[in-house]
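Thread amino acids onto this structure.
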């Protein structure tokens, strides 16, 4: 199939009304690996904000059950764009996300920052390492998709444009990135998990490769050793070589779902969305957005 299949299809859609379908085409067909990696790095960046990294460390989920926490996050975030926000699956996933968050005192500013990373980091990743960048239509659809997700999460003052998200993320990181021991332990645990997705002889090179793709402010916030210019040059050259090769491969015919990825290991016998994630603390939790009841 022509390499322009999904780009051409997305260009026929309206990013103001068809943003879920456009984002689905991007995540399940066109850029499955890239968006998965970019969102992993997006979440990784949030650990460098002490109020976020410290809280995640205190919950213990990202250090004692890091594989399950990784799997649950990926599966819950996938449901709305696979099934739609108004589907039983989409509502169940969002309710589960909100229940977990509502158990803790999380500021709207932190919510906005995390949301901004989901918009900005994938765009920058594809600009740097993708076989092509988002089109204007696809970028607008991504913005609208995450604006809708933010509204379902009860987040206030959500930016309306990509530039708004970009400035929010960059400004927040300049103001808040700092070392925190808890955030560092969460980062270490997550980075160690990411290396287990590869054969044992490759795990150390993958760890160096991952640090080579991190920018200087992020390395400084975690007090990570800079991998050096050679490792950075080799890692980024390898990513760009991959992009050049992908330009010659056909468009995917079948979707790739998160549950199909070999790195998702917690549920070999299947899962129920309503049971994913940590359970809310009694008396503290509840979904901040009203939904119609959905089946478990």
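Threaded sequence (296 positions):
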């Amino acid at each position: 199939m022509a390499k322009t299949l999904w780009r051409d299809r997305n260009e026929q859609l309206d990013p103001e009304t068809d943003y879920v379908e456009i984002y689905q085409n991007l995540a399940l067909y066109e850029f499955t690996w890239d968006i998965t990696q970019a969102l992993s790095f997006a979440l990784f960046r949030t650990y460098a904000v002490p109020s976020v990294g410290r809280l995640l460390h205190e919950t213990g989920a990202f250090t004692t059950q890091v594989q399950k926490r990784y799997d649950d996050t990926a599966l819950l975030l996938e449901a709305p764009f696979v099934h739609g926000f108004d589907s039983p699956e989409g509502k169940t996933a969002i309710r589960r996300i909100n229940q977990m968050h509502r158990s803790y005192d999380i500021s709207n500013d932190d919510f906005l920052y995390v949301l901004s990373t989901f918009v900005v980091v994938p765009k920058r990743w594809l600009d740097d390492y993708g076989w092509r960048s988002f089109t204007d239509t696809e970028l607008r659809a991504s913005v609208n998709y995450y604006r809708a997700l933010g509204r379902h999460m009860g987040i206030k003052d959500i930016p309306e444009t990509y530039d708004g998200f970009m400035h929010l993320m960059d400004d927040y990181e300049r103001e808040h990135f700092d070392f925190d021991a808890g955030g560092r332990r969460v980062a270490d645990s997550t980075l160690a998990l990411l290396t287990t997705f590869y054969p044992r002889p490759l795990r150390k090179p993958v760890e160096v490769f991952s640090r080579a793709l991190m920018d200087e402010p992020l390395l400084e916030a975690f007090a990570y050793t800079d991998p050096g210019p050679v490792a950075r040059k080799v890692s980024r050259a390898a990513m760009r070589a991959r992009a050049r090769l992908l330009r010659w491969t056909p468009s995917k015919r079948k979707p790739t779902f998160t549950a199909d990825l070999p790195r998702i290991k917690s549920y070999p016998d299947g899962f129920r969305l309503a049971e994913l994630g940590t359970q809310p603390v009694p008396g503290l939790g509840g979904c901040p957005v009203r939904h119609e009841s959905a089946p478990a």
